Amino acid sequence: LTFAVLLLLLFDPMLPTAARPNSGGTVVIMDASLSMALPAANGATRWSVAVDRARRVGGSPIVLLAGATPRRVTRDSLSQTKPSYAESRMLPALQAASEGGARKAIEITDGAVEDAHEVQRWLPRLGLDVEVQSLGAALAGDRALMEVSAPQWAEAGKPFDVRVGVISSS
To answer: What's the pLDDT score for residue 14?
Structure first.
């Protein structure tokens, strides 16, 4: 019994379980941030292009929606799903894929990933082969709200100033 336990500790086998149904398989990670609802170059939205790419992945991979917290969905339900996350964070989804026993992750994103530096730092520890499928360059006029400044108090019927800071990729 001791010898068997030592062998198990030495070789660390991966056994399929309910928590790890796709042991050693592929996981598709889709960026589900609000920027994916913007139009793509061909007139469709970035999300619809990503859904088409996810459906073309062979086999029956697990699909994770990446945002602040990853969420597992089926490929069949992707057309009814809409991007809804305010953040575009890939690391939690990559960690979930690794913990689930996946060996390969296909990341479909528009490239506006907020935690890219953390992903680069963690990737060697996750043991995943990651393929990034970018939806192309950012569109001209792609903007984000960076800061808003307004007074703490305002009186009804009296004007007040609000300052807005906007950043653009173009």
So the answer is: 62
Residue 169 CB neighbour total at 10 angstroms: 13
Angle between helices 116-126 and 91-99 (to 10 degrees): 10
Return d(Cα 148, Cα 163) in angstroms, integer. Answer: 6
Q: In terms of DSSP bridges, do strands 62-66 and 71-73 run parallel, antiparallel, or are they unpaired?
A: antiparallel
Residue 106: the pLDDT is 93
Q: How far is CA 80 from the centre of its chain?
A: 18
Residue 20 bridge partners (DSSP): 17
pLDDT-derived band of residue 90, with 50, 70 and 90 as boundaries? Answer: very high
d(CA 70, CA 146): 25
The model scores a pTM over 0.85: no
In terms of DSSP bridges, do strands 129-134 and 104-109 run parallel, antiparallel, or are they unpaired? Answer: parallel
DSSP state of 5: H
Number of C-beta neighbours around residue 161 at 10 A: 8
CB atoms within 10 A of CB 25: 18
Residue 128 identity (one-letter amino acid): L
Is the separation of the CB atoms in 61 and 23 below 8 Å? Answer: no
Helix, strand or coil, per DSSP, at residue 26: strand
> 55 — alpha (psi -120 to 50), left (phi > 0) or beta?
alpha
